[in-house]
Design a protein that fits this description.
Blueprint (H helix, E strand, L loop, with lengths): L2 H15 L11 H12 L6 E5 L7 H8 L4 E6 L2 H13 L5 E5 L12 E7 L9 H9 L1 E12 L14 H18 L3 H5 L9 H10 L3 E14 L2 H9 L4 H5 L3 H16 L8 E13 L4
The structure holds S-adenosylmethionine.
Length: about 290
C-alpha cells in the first residue's frame, strides 16, 4: 500500500473515530499532550504548529503556554477532528488557536515560520526516517524547537506492544500484527519494529541529526493508565486508533477476545477497585541549528 492510500486509511479511521475519540473517561491523550507541551519548553508569545492535532490534547495546553500574544496552529488530515478541535478552542476562548485540514506529510507553510513544531501521538504514524522529518526542521526558525511524543517502540523490539497490558499482550499481539499487515497503513513503522526509526534512542538520534536537527533529547516515561474495569479498558481502546485492530476481527471472535481481555484485566483490580496499566511513552525533542 502506498503513502497516499495509507493517508486515506488514516483519514477514514480518524474521521469515523473523532466523535468518541478520547471521550471514554480514561485519561490518556490528555496527560501525554500536557507533558509534551511541558517537555517542549514553549515560551509566551511563541508561534507553534501542532501536527495531527486531533481534538486538541496538545493544542490547548500549547495555547495556554504561549498565551494570548502567541499563536498555535493545529493541522489534521481528518475534517471531523478539526471540527471538534475548533469547537474546543472556542469553548475555552482560546483566540490564539487556529485549526485547519491539512496533511502532516506536506505542511504548507513558509520556511522558518514557527518557533516550535510539535506532534502528540501523531507524527510517528507516517514518519519513517530523516526525509519525513526534515520538512519540520525547515518550518522552524533557526534555534526553533521540534518535539513529539508517541507510545514507546522500545518495548516492541521485545515483542511487547506499548499499549497492551502485559497480561493481554500475547493474546492481542497476533490480532495487531494481522491488522497491521492487512491495512498496510502502519507497514514498516509497526509491523517491522526493528527498522523503525523510533526503535531505540540511538535510532531516534540518528534520524533527527540526519534531518539536520541538533541537541536531541529522548526520554521514556511511564504513563499509568487507570481504568475501573476490564470492559472500560476495551471501550477506551475502541475510541483510539486501536479501533482499526478490533474492526478487522470477525464479529463473533471479536466478542470472545474482548470478553477474555476484560476478564483478565479484572483480575488485576487493586484494593481500591481500579486497574492500573503502565504505558511507556517516549518524548523526543530537538532543535533546528541556530545558524
Ligand atoms: C492518535 S491521534 C492523536 C491526536 C492528538 N494529537 C492527541 O494527542 O490526541 C492521531 C491524529 O493524527 C491525524 N493524522 C493521521 N494521519 C495524518 C496525516 N497524514 N496528516 C495529518 N494528520 C494525520 C489523525 O487524524 C489523528 O487526529
Amino acid at each position: 500500500m502506498g503513502n497516499a492510500e495509507n493517508a486515506e486509511e488514516m483519514h477514514r479511521l480518524f474521521d469515523k473515530t473523532a466523535k468518541i475519540y478520547d471521550q471514554s473517561g480514561v485519561e490518556f491523550f490528555g496527560p501525554i499532550g500536557r507533558r509534551l507541551v511541558e517537555f517542549s519548553e514553549l515560551s509566551a508569545g511563541h508561534s507553534v504548529l501542532d501536527i495531527g492535532c486531533g481534538r486538541g490534547a496538545a493544542l490547548f495546553p500549547a495555547a495556554e503556554a504561549v498565551g494570548a500574544d502567541g499563536e498555535v496552529i493545529g493541522i489534521d488530515i481528518s475534517e471531523e477532528m478539526v471540527k471538534y478541535a475548533a469547537e474546543g478552542a472556542q469553548e475555552r476562548e482560546l483566540g490564539q488557536v487556529d485549526v485547519s485540514v491539512m496533511s502532516g506529510q506536506a505542511p504548507d507553510f513558509p520556511v522558518g515560520r514557527f518557533d516550535a513544531v510539535i506532534g502528540s501521538c501523531s507524527l510517528f504514524i507516517w514518519t519513517n526516517g530523516p526525509d519525513d522529518v526534515r520538512p519540520y526542521r525547515e518550518l522552524l526558525r533557526p534555534g526553533g524547537r521540534f518535539a513529539t511524543a508517541a507510545p514507546s517502540f522500545f518495548s516492541t523490539l521485545r515483542g511487547k506492544w506499548a499499549l497492551f497490558p502485559e497480561i493481554v499482550n500475547e493474546l492481542l499481539m497476533p490480532y495487531m500484527l494481522q491488522s497491521l499487515k492487512q491495512s498496510g497503513a502502519y507497514d514498516s513503522q509497526f509491523a517491522n519494529a526493528g527498522s523503525n526509526w523510533l526503535a531505540t534512542p540511538e535510532s531516534i538520534e540518528k534520524t533527527l541529526t540526519g534531518a539536520g536537527f541538533v541537541d536531541v533529547v529522548v526520554q521514556e516515561e511511564e504513563l499509568p493508565v487507570v481504568v475501573e474495569s476490564g470492559q472500560q479498558w476495551v471501550d477506551f481502546t475502541y475510541t483510539t486508533g486501536m479501533r482499526g485492530m478490533w474492526e478487522r476481527i470477525e464479529e463473533k471472535e471479536r466478542q470472545e477476545v474482548m470478553g477474555e481481555v476484560s476478564r483478565r484485566l479484572d483480575s488485576l483490580k487493586d484494593e481500591n477497585g481500579v486497574i492500573t496499566t503502565p504505558v511507556p511513552i517516549v518524548y523526543v525533542r530537538a532543535q533546528a541549528p541556530k545558524v
